[in-house]
Amino acid sequence: MIIVLLGYMGCGKSTIGKELAKTLSFSFVDLDNYIEKKEAMSVTNIFKSKGEIYFRKKEHEYLKELTSNSDKLILSLGGGTPCYANNMRVLDREGINSIYLSVSVKELSKRLFNEKEERPLIANIETEEELQSFIGIHLFERSSFYSQARTVIKTDGLTIKNIVENIIGSLY
Ligand SMILES: Nc1ncnc2c1ncn2[C@@H]1O[C@H](COP(=O)(O)OP(=O)(O)O)[C@@H](O)[C@H]1O
Ligand SMILES: O=C(O)C1=C[C@@H](OP(=O)(O)O)[C@@H](O)[C@H](O)C1
Ligand SMILES: [Mg+2]
């Protein structure tokens, strides 16, 4: 089985994925880190020097690679992965369990304002209010992709441990 975590930037895909993998003794891959290793460049620098379209092409390619020959894997996607190149269709097969970690706009803005530098799509937004209004629109645009996941978990107010338990509970 492959468990795929998806959702907006800052929803906890990387953090929860790591914990979930430890708890289940699965291997863990963060798609952004995988791309960075394969391309020998940070996501920020890929966006800067090669552009977003190049990033989306590589993201699609590596998603197919990772999902075609893995088992007992937790795969944390990037926030945009479900929204490009028919990637939700790549995930729509037996053996892949996709989980959308849903978080409110307010909580996402709070978390991301402190961590926007390493996220090229929001790095230049100056105030938390502007960030909140950007996320409100962007999340609305992306929601139709995210909600194609097999399972949706609302995680506001939950600890990382709670969320891991909820995910494991949803598997049976
Ligand atoms: N359940 C949670 N409660 C509070 N903070 C969280 C939770 N999950 C993640 N975070 C924090 O939110 C930030 C973004 O998490 P991250 O795992 O990088 O998100 P993503 O990979 O989805 O962009 C990190 O600082 C992380 O520690
Ligand atoms: O939402 C997006 O389009 C992106 C999210 C990022 O991943 P995180 O969701 O882990 O921040 C990373 O893939 C890139 O900066 C683009
Ligand atoms: Mg991440």
Written overview of the protein:
The protein is of the alpha/beta class and 172 residues long. The chain has one domain (2-156): P-loop containing nucleotide triphosphate hydrolases (Rossmann fold, 3-Layer(aba) Sandwich). Helices cover 51% and strands 14% of the residues. It contains eight helices and five strands. It has a five-stranded parallel sheet with strand order 2-3-1-4-5. The two termini are 13 Å apart. The mean pLDDT is 97. Magnesium ion is lined by residues 13-14, 30, 32, 76.
Calculate Rg over CA atoms.
15 Å
The total strand number stands at 5
Mean pLDDT: 97
Q: Indicate the percent of residues in helices.
A: 40-55%
Count up the domains: 1
CATH class: Alpha Beta
Shape: globular
Q: Mind telling me the CATH superfamily name? A: P-loop containing nucleotide triphosphate hydrolases
Which topology does CATH recognise? Rossmann fold
Tally of separate helices? 8
- Range of strand content: 5-15%
In the CATH hierarchy, the architecture is 3-Layer(aba) Sandwich
Hetero groups: adenosine-5'-diphosphate, shikimate-3-phosphate, magnesium ion
Element-level helix/strand string: EHEHHHEHEHHEH
- What oligomeric arrangement do these chains adopt? single chain
- Low-confidence parts lasting 5 or more residues at pLDDT below 50? none
